[in-house]
Amino acid sequence: MSAGSNKIRVYVRTRPTPNFSHDVLKFLPDVKTINVDIKKDIRKGVVNNQPSNWSFKADGILHNATQEAVHDTISRKIISRAMEGYNGTIMCYGQTGAGKTFTMTGATESYKHRGIIPRALQQVFREIQERVNQAITVQISYLEIYNENLYDLLSTMPDCLTSESQMTIVDDPPGVNIKGLSVHLIHNEEEAFNLLFEGETNRIIAAHALNKNSSRSHCIFTIYLESHSRILSNAMYVTSKVNLVDLAGSERLGKTWSEGKILNEATYINKSLSFLEQTILALADRNRQHVPFRQSKLTYALKDSLGGNCTTILVANIFGEVAHIEETLSTLRFASRMRAVATKPVINEHCDPVRMVQKLELEIHLLKQELAMHDILVNRCQITYEPLSDSQIGEINSQVHQFLEGTLDEIEIINIRQLREVFSQFKLVLKTKQKKLYESLFTSDLVIIKREAGLVEIEGQAVGEVDGHGFGIEVAPFSSKPTRVVSYKSIVFSPLFSPSPKKESPGTPSPGKELDSRSLSRMQPLVTSGKDLDGKDTMQREQDVLSTDLNCPDSAGKEEHSRPSSPPNKAVAFEEFKIERGCEISRILQENKSILSEKKRTVKELSLRINNVKQEIDVAKQELEGKRQEREEQGEYMNDGEVVIDEEEFELIVKLKDLKSRYRSDYDTLRDLKSEILYCQQLVEQCRYRLLTEFEIWYNESFLIPEDIQANLKGGGSLRPGLIPVNRVLALEEDDHERFECLQQELLMENPDSVSFYNAKMKIEQRVSYT
Ligand SMILES: Nc1ncnc2c1ncn2[C@@H]1O[C@H](COP(=O)(O)OP(=O)(O)OP(=O)(O)O)[C@@H](O)[C@H]1O
């Protein structure tokens, strides 16, 4: 959180003196402007043409101000903001003896004259008491920079383990830290003051002419604050640090009459202050890319405070006597430059990982309770929400496979975790399939493609074979299939009820498969089981054929002809039969044969086409394999884990897919056509059988069975055609005929339903006897 961009604020504080030069230093009524008017005779050695009037701007002038006023004006607000997470820095700059230490620390022997540090510490603990909703911890450290060396002013404390040599300045974003500097946790004012005074005692002080207690070093007293909310259970907390800096006095070496060690110190002090000034100049110059913080320990240690994310205030301590006007001018110039430096205070907010985990755990616990209550209300008590075990994941994997195979209708979703796992398993299956499919494009085995597509595996078979049943294109000729060869001589009588074709016979179209209805409708079955193709039942069609025969114009005439003394040649009679009495059956047979041969021709053409496609597939696969090898030899391009192929290879893959699609389509057509052919063959056979049977009946009746017996077989007679075996009928004497008639009547009386049974039995016997 940023509080916006600010400039370093500057306050001028004067050391009270009865000899204050009001003529030279004039504070304007706005209490922000200082005019310096130096009379030429005051500035000895100054060239006359140099300016002798200056005007300096400050954010406030604390002339003869009390310690309390100084604290109220300068440090109170910084401490308050530090409690909220903003860093703050207060620096005292000025010539030696101008009152820097007095401002910062104050007179340690006088409570009334205590400086900013003790007052800040007091304010911190008072605010802690007031901020009951915050748990604030306070720590302090006290660093001294003397002759470019770092010293821990609190290292003499019992709990301090740091030695001087271990301290280094570390630029550790977002701030600078003094590694090795002891930081002390304090719980109240008293502990804080103890440490302050301890530090003051350890401060290196060397007396010189201007200040008998002159501090010859830069001191940084730091207060560290960390604030957590007592109300909110969130894991956010703020930290801040307040640097209270008492710089060593700027001085003119000649003026302080320093010599020896003191002179050496003064050199260091002036050097570091000079670097501080250069740093300030660099910070104030917006065009400067580099700010030389590291050229002195002081600037490096104050890197955060100078132009960082910190509220910074400079106290320009001046000693307003005429004798110190040059130092005063120098201090005011420095202060003016400081006012040009921008700072950007930012709240230091952090997240406590431990508290965050605790908070989230608590929230999870509460949500689980809510969920459990919800499940009880909707009768889902058996549901658990723990992470899935390996066996549960395995079960989900199995369910997904069953679902995809169709053996499982649906996967019951019980919770989000399970749902996510289901999707994950689907993804896994999909990726595996994709990988296999891709690989299959480069294999020479067509079988893998068919398996992926859910088609029948035809590995090791000739093209056109189905499941190894030897249904080969141009491989297994139809003639090799068992066909019923009906001998002209073997059939002598037509059964009223011929055996029905088996429903599941190879030649019968499989259920759900539509045959070529146009060509099949032209096929004319003579005998089928139940209903035939045009909806007539078997008995009806049988009667139609018989009636066709009876209606034949020549047949009636033939009956009128006188019977020849000896039976004619059967072959000649058969040819005659086909033209006359059996003309209709013969015509149907010829039509069926013609349809059959047409379908066989189509099969032949289709087989040739399939073989050609197969050859094209083989060629395409060879080319694709060549491309793949070439790609592997030249090194493969990868993109997101996928192999990149060139356009030619892609076109080959597409072509191969197209050819395989055509192959599958033609293959399916061929399979259906083969079923139709087998069915047609059955019809042709049935037709042929019927023709021969009818001929035998006609031939027997016309030339072999005596006429008196035939009279009994006709309508109104006691015997019906086919009821009695011909050989037996022919062998019966008159009495036997009567007895047989009686026996038959008895049997029919006893069991009328036995007619069909005896009828069929007799026909078989008749056929055997004629054979
Ligand atoms: N505002 C003041 N009111 C009363 N006495 C003061 C004030 N400012 C300074 N003094 C006195 O002036 C003397 C010098 O002050 P101080 O030690 O604070 O100067 P300094 O700037 O810190 O000098 P140095 O840089 O040498 O340490 C001290 O004895 C101090 O008590």
UniProtKB/TrEMBL annotation:
Q: Which residues does the record give as ATP binding sites?
A: 94-101
Q: Which GO terms describe its molecular function?
A: ATP binding; microtubule binding; microtubule motor activity
Q: Which residues form a coiled coil?
A: 596-634
Tell me the keywords, alphabetical order: ATP-binding, Cell projection, Cilium, Coiled coil, Cytoplasm, Cytoskeleton, Flagellum, Microtubule, Motor protein, Nucleotide-binding, Phosphoprotein
A GO cellular component entry from the record = microtubule
For this protein, the record's Pfam families field holds: KIF9 (PF23735), Kinesin (PF00225)
Main location as per UniProt: cytoplasm
Question: What biological-process GO terms show up in the record?
Answer: microtubule-based movement
Q: Where in the cell is it found?
A: Cytoplasm, Cytoskeleton, Flagellum axoneme
Q: Which SMART domains match?
A: KISc
Protein name stated in the entry: Kinesin-like protein
